[in-house]
């Protein structure tokens, strides 16, 4: 593909060069669009400690990457992410967040929202538990026909409100529907997610990756500062307490852009 700068591993150890089978994360930089792939397909891209730490490091690093304009997030194989890797319990690479706090995963959610780049999650198969949280921390979610969004937390004996899911989901699909999903542990399939407004589009399986990249390229046509300021304004107005405050936030960003164009 034109503009491809290659794949590289992102894990506790790093090296440049072609991806290998045990790389936890893969990145491709494609003319301002970065494609980030969770690469544990044999475990449905479930989160263990090395993967959680690699994701946190990656998203924290994106804050100063002016060459990356938009990020597309996807999972290798047949799932986006099945959430915490429960089969790793008791193993050295088990996810260690727990009774003392979800430190790494909590910081990952914050790092994703602090990224100036728009984040697009392209979801096929399961986005469960922590995988659902990652999708919700994105700016746009696109799904294939096989996508299923599982809260999962209650099913394994945990609170149904974790990692910002309650905050994001209630704003995405409304109070009643979000509480039905989280309190009853009911997953949303692709069609239901589209109807509820959780995802912006549903594609056939074979078209998901192309759709996500086309959307990212459309975003990347904007001026870099305009793109970043728009994302910041959208986040700020989502939390604004009044319409007047929202107007003020938007006007300040617009004034910055006008000044830069004139400069």
From TrEMBL:
Pfam families from the UniProt entry: ECH_1
InterPro entries cross-referenced by the UniProt entry: ClpP/crotonase-like_dom_sf (IPR029045), Enoyl-CoA_hyd/isom_CS (IPR018376), Enoyl-CoA_hydra/iso (IPR001753)
An example Gene Ontology molecular-function term: isomerase activity
UniProt keyword Isomerase, yes or no: yes
Keywords of this entry: Isomerase
Source organism, top-level taxon: Bacteria
Keyword S-adenosyl-L-methionine in record: no
PROSITE patterns with a match to the protein in the record: ENOYL_COA_HYDRATASE (PS00166)
Family in the record: Belongs to the enoyl-CoA hydratase/isomerase family.
PANTHER family (alphabetical): ENOYL-COA HYDRATASE, IP11341P-RELATED
Protein name as catalogued: Enoyl-CoA hydratase/isomerase family protein
Lineage start: Bacteria, Pseudomonadati, Pseudomonadota, Alphaproteobacteria, Caulobacterales
């Amino acid at each position: 593909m034109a503009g491809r700068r290659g794949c590289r591993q992102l894990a506790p150890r790093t090296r440049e060069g072609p991806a290998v089978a045990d790389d936890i994360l893969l990145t491709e930089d494609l003319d301002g669009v970065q494609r980030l792939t969770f690469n544990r397909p044999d475990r449905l891209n479930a989160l263990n400690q090395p993967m959680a730490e690699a994701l946190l490091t990656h998203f924290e690093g994106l804050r100063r990457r002016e060459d990356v304009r938009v990020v597309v997030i996807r999972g290798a194989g047949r799932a986006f992410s099945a959430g915490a890797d429960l089969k790793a319990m008791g193993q050295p690479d088990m996810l260690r967040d727990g009774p003392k706090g979800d430190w790494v995963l909590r910081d990952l959610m914050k790092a994703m929202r602090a990224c100036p780049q728009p984040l697009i999650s392209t979801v096929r198969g399961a986005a469960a538990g922590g995988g659902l949280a990652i999708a919700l921390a994105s700016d746009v979610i696109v799904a294939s026909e096989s996508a299923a969004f599982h809260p999962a937390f209650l099913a394994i004996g945990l609170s149904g409100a974790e990692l910002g899911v309650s905050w994001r989901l209630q704003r995405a699909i409304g109070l009643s529907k979000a509480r039905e999903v989280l309190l009853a542990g009911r997953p949303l399939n692709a069609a239901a997610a589209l109807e509820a407004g959780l995802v912006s589009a549903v594609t056939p399986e074979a078209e998901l990756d192309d759709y996500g990249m086309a959307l990212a390229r459309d975003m990347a046509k904007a001026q870099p500062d305009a793109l970043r300021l728009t994302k910041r304004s959208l986040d700020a107005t989502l939390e604004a307490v009044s319409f007047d405050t929202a107007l003020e936030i938007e006007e300040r960003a617009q004034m910055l852009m006008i000044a830069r164009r004139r400069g």
